[in-house]
Specification:
single chain; BirA Bifunctional Protein, domain 2; 2 domains; two-stranded antiparallel sheet; 9 strands; 20% strand; binds 3,4-dihydroxyphenylalanine
Length: 335
């Protein structure tokens, strides 16, 4: 037992030296694993606790926890120090002399995502659509239930939902897509409906080149008498040529969404022949029409949902989604 206690004391002393010597954040991350991970002294000592008498186990057990905390504090303090140093280096390297700019003549302009948003609105308004919006904080019914996601159905896990601590557990959320606005439009407007619904959506995703926890979608909804799948295909094809140019075409591939039946993925073909997936779409499911207060015997419709940021990336040949939200003006001023 003394032996274990001595090992723990030595571990803290060693950690203090090693942490102080860590030259950068990467080295510190490696060290963090060495000091607290599976192969660390702390973990090894803990695994030997079972072999000592209950009294001793209590004493050493407590000491293990203390040592763990002491090492965590050491690492956190060094991490803060190194992060501040790293930031200072970046700030110095990227310092901008704003007096270089000829004041008065260089006006700002709209963000590339806003430009894409407005272009899409113009295009669909030109095709006779209206623009609708809905709330970013949604209730479970509009985001899922009304869209024909049964309770406890695995399809709800298609999205990593961020719930808001309000009302019953999981009753309020940050909308995971713009599809709930379809239902809100049906609830408030008489058909015929020809609407698009752009907006911000939220998912608990880690940011990488193709994902952001906050991004944008544009939803489309048409409800009228006698609407067919052919109308959907024709609309998306017309959109493709208008938005990307007449050297692009599109195709629909079978897919699954709870709120459409049949459902499809919409791909576009670039002039070089390659395909790119851009949207989900399909014929509005009768249950969704009912949830919106419409009689599926009388009305039919189609819907689609695009990733708006993706359209911006595509159009401008940008390969990393994160660039759009870094707000580095050297990047943004190019568009
Ligand atoms: N809401 C879907 C998503 O976020 C996209 C989508 C698929 C929208 C099919 C639609 C649709 O309107 O019909 O993944």
């Amino acid at each position: 037992m003394e032996d274990l206690a001595a090992q723990l004391d030595a571990a803290v002393a060693d950690a203090a030296v090693a942490v102080a010597a860590a030259a950068d954040l990467d080295a510190l991350a490696v060290l963090d694993t060495d000091l607290l991970g599976k192969k660390s002294v702390v973990t090894t000592v803990r695994s030997h606790l079972g072999g000592i008498d209950p009294e001793g186990r209590k004493v050493v057990g407590r000491r293990v926890n203390e040592v763990r905390t002491e090492i965590e504090v050491l690492v956190a303090a060094r991490r803060a120090e190194l992060a501040a140093e790293a930031r200072a280096v970046v700030l110095e390297a990227e310092r901008l002399d704003l007096t270089e700019f000829d004041r008065g003549r260089r006006l700002g302009h709209r963000h590339v995502v806003t430009q894409t948003w407005e272009r899409l609105e113009d295009l669909f308004v030109g095709m006779g659509y209206t623009v609708a919006e809905g709330p970013e904080i949604e209730d479970e019914w509009h985001n899922f239930g009304a869209l024909n996601f049964p309770l406890d159905h695995p399809a709800r896990d298609m999205y990593d939902t961020l719930y808001v601590d309000h009302g019953e557990p999981q009753s309020t959320l940050l909308r995971t897509h713009t599809s709930p606005v379809q239902v809100r439009v049906m609830e408030t407007q008489e058909p015929p409906i020809y609407s698009i619904m752009p907006g911000r959506v939220f998912r608990s995703d880690t940011a990488d080149a193709t994902h952001m926890p906050v991004f944008h979608q544009i939803e489309g909804l048409v409800v009228d008498r006698g609407i067919t799948f052919g109308d959907l295909a024709g609309t998306l094809e017309a959109f493709t040529r208008a938005y990307f140019g007449s050297d692009f075409t599109s195709r629909l591939r079978p897919s699954y969404f709870p709120f459409t039946e049949p459902s499809a993925e919409f791909d576009i073909q670039r002039p070089d022949g390659s395909w790119l997936e851009l949207a989900g779409c399909g014929m509005v499911h009768p249950n969704v029409l009912r949830a919106g207060g419409l009689d599926p015997e009388e009305w039919s419709g189609f819907a689609f949902g695009f990733g708006l940021d993706r359209l911006a990336l595509m159009r401008h040949g940008i390969d990393d989604l994160r660039e759009l939200f870094r707000n580095d003006h050297r990047f943004l001023e190019q568009f």
